[in-house]
Design goal:
669 residues; mainly alpha; Serine Threonine Protein Phosphatase 5, Tetratricopeptide repeat; 38 helices
Length: 669
């Protein structure tokens, strides 16, 4: 076949392809290849025809042969790209990306529009594959090409915005380089915006700041962006809110941070981050109740802030709201999810604080939960304070051997650690080894004098050690006073001060004040509440006694606060107010239906009210629960007599006289 014939055969192949006669085209190409086996066009036409006949492997082979012959010719590369782009071609995305890269190289010095089209396709392909770094780098090449061609500012602005859009969902898979390219895109988009200040520019700035806040190491850039946006949009609270949350989450509570909180609250008094910031300021100033109030309010508005939940738990812990503090720690951990980087520190802090709080609750279930929390702390084994907490949790759970083992190990490895000596003290105290406990707590105080709990337990050690140490002003009393001074929310210190003034010093007035304070701090402390009421009655101050009882019963849920209902019921009984006495004594019995004395008092109240049948039932119930209550049995007999049930009355009187021969009321009855 001559050259002329080869050219004619190729022309026939091209015409056949144009007429969709692909098999005919293949015949012409094969004829050419018999003569010229390295004919580039023949291989390209075979690729084209085979692709249309849905013979992808043959098409791919033909294109690759053509590329091998002429690597820098466009036709075969274009054909291969078209083949790989077909919907029935799977698992070729990597190969297609390589083809697009080659086409970009071939188009670069020629057809700029086609270069841009291929570039768009390549970016789309990388985006589907979530190869965000390649997306960013390729799109930047497109923007550079447009800049070199002298594109308008508005067109470049749209291209930078498109790059932001492409990279926005890369946060989960984002490496540092991709992140930097995304931030650069934001900066270019902001600088190329048409209307400044304007709504679109404002929204773009908000997105930029939000994006920056996700980069822990871009602190300076975040602060600058917030300040720049505040200068452009002085009435907008958003940049200040982000800055405040950044300070909260970073644990940075510098003067600059405090100014930021104040400025935000001046601008918007209802701003969640501003109120949170104010709460943290109160916490640092030891205004714990105000801190709890502000942090709770702020978190109702901005609840996905782990650090703020931790600060709230810390404030609740300071005022001994232990169960609430545990809930706040749980909220912090939930908001953190599966943390990395700086958030891992918050997770460890929240777990440790949760464990400390659960140990203060001091029951076996809470101890078990504390142990689980401590197990989740990263690198917990290397932290002696965490080990001491674990020892306390074991002690609360009754696992004395494990607690003792930790105590001994800590005293050997960290002899200067206050927590190690305190743990030893708690163990001795629980075993009533008061002399050894005294030494341990004195050592702990020597290492860390400002811990109220150590002084309280040293005071308790002296209280139970002997009558001498209990009465010695320089022993128990001194330690309770120190504990109360160091922690004005420590209710148990005030309770024992009350015990001292009542039982040792005989100062009822001062004792009543201490019990009242203890009860105000912890309304579940029945011992202090009861003592405050009893001492008020003894001092002739019924107003104070009633105000305490009214406050407790006013807040009490059904079936709780028995002591308060009982005390007030007895007061009404003594002062001739039987109907009120009946209501309160019934409420006391809802809390404890098996209290025979309470049933007897209720019978008395019904009797005074003139409700004889109900009084009879109450006295009978009292004597059923406690057959030794002679008075209740006698009252039941007397009521049977009043109600005309003479035979029953006689039988009941005789029953009393069998047990107590000379019981005069029964003889008279």
């Amino acid at each position: 076949m001559s050259n002329k014939e080869v050219k004619a055969a190729l022309k026939s192949a091209r015409d056949a392809i144009r007429n969709k006669e692909y098999k005919e085209a293949l015949k012409h190409c094969k004829a050419v290849l018999k003569q010229e086996k390295n004919n580039y066009n023949a291989w390209v036409f075979i690729g084209l025809a085979a692709a249309e006949l849905e013979q992808p492997d043959q098409a791919k082979g033909a294109y690759k042969k053509a590329i091998e012959l002429e690597p820098n010719q466009l036709l075969a590369w274009q054909g291969l790209a078209n083949l790989y782009e077909k919907p029935n071609q799977t698992d070729v995305k990597g190969d297609l990306a390589d083809v697009y890269q080659k086409l970009l190289e071939l188009y670069e010095s020629g057809d700029k529009q086609k270069w841009c089209d291929v570039c768009n396709k390549l970016v789309e392909l990388y985006h589907q594959e979530k190869k965000y770094l390649e997306v960013a780098e390729t799109w930047q090449k497109l923007i550079r090409m447009k800049q070199e061609e002298g594109a308008e500012k508005a067109e470049l602005h749209q291209l930078w915005k498109k790059m932001i859009q492409l990279l926005r969902d890369s946060s989960r898979n984002r490496d540092n380089m991709t992140g930097q390219l995304l931030l650069t895109a934001f900066e270019h988009a902001l600088n190329s915006a048409d209307v400044v200040p304007g709504e679109e520019h404002q929204n773009l700035y908000k997105d930029f700041i939000l994006c920056l806040s996700q980069f822990p190491h871009e602190v300076a850039r975040l602060e600058k962006a917030c300040h720049d946006m505040m200068a452009l949009y002085p009435t907008m609270s958003y940049p200040l809110e982000v800055l405040c949350l950044h300070f909260v989450n970073s644990g940075n509570l510098s003067e600059k941070a405090l100014q930021c909180f104040s400025r935000l609250l001046e601008m918007d008094a209802s701003s969640g981050p501003g109120i949170i910031g104010f709460g943290i300021k109160c916490l640092k100033e030891k205004k714990y109740k105000e801190a709890v109030k502000s942090l709770t309010e702020g978190l109702q508005k901005t609840n996905q802030c782990p650090a703020a939940w931790h600060y709230l738990a810390e404030a609740q812990m300071k005022i001994h709201e232990h169960r609430n503090a545990v809930l706040s720690c749980n909220q912090a951990l939930e908001a953190l999810g599966t943390p990395e980087g700086p958030n891992l520190r918050w997770k460890n802090l929240a777990l440790q604080l949760k464990a400390e709080t659960l140990i203060k609750i001091a029951d076996a279930d809470a101890a078990e939960e504390a142990i689980k929390a401590l197990e989740q702390i990263v690198d917990a084994s290397s932290d002696p304070v965490v080990s001491a907490l674990r020892g306390q949790a074991y002690l609360n759970k009754g696992l004395m051997d494990q607690a003792s083992k930790i105590s001994q190990e800590l005293l050997l490895s960290h002899p200067d650690l206050a927590e190690a000596h305190a743990l030893e003290g708690f163990i001795h105290y629980s075993q009533k080894n008061y002399e050894q406990a005294e030494k341990s707590f004195l050592s702990a105080i020597e290492k860390k004098a400002g811990t109220a709990e150590y002084h309280l337990y040293l005071g308790l050690t002296y209280w139970f050690m002997s009558d001498e140490t209990k009465k010695d002003k320089g022993k128990a009393l001194t330690q309770f006073l120190k504990a109360a001074k160091l922690d004005s929310y420590l209710g148990s210190a005030f309770c024992y001060l009350g015990n001292y003034y009542r039982d040792i010093a005989g100062d009822k007035s001062r004792a009543r004040g201490c019990y009242k304070k203890a009860f105000e701090l912890d309304e579940t402390d029945e011992e202090s509440g009861t003592a405050a009421v009893n001492l008020s009655v003894e001092l002739g101050d019924m107003d104070t006694a009633l105000s305490i009882l009214n406050e407790v019963t006013g807040k009490a849920r059904p079936g709780t606060a028995k002591w308060a209902w009982l005390h007030r019921g007895l007061y009404y009984l003594r002062t001739g107010q039987p109907s009120q006495a009946v209501a309160d004594l019934q409420a006391a019995l809802r809390a404890d239906p098996k209290d025979s004395n309470c049933w007897e008092s209720l019978g008395e109240a019904y009797l005074n009210r003139g409700s004889y049948s109900t009084a009879l039932k109450s006295f009978r119930k009292a004597s059923e629960l406690n057959p030794g209550l002679v008075y209740s049995i006698y009252k039941a007999a007397a009521l049977e007599q009043i109600l005309g049930k003479y035979e029953n009355a006689i039988a009941t009187y005789q029953q009393i006289l069998k047990k107590t021969e000379n019981y005069v009321p029964a003889l008279k009855g």
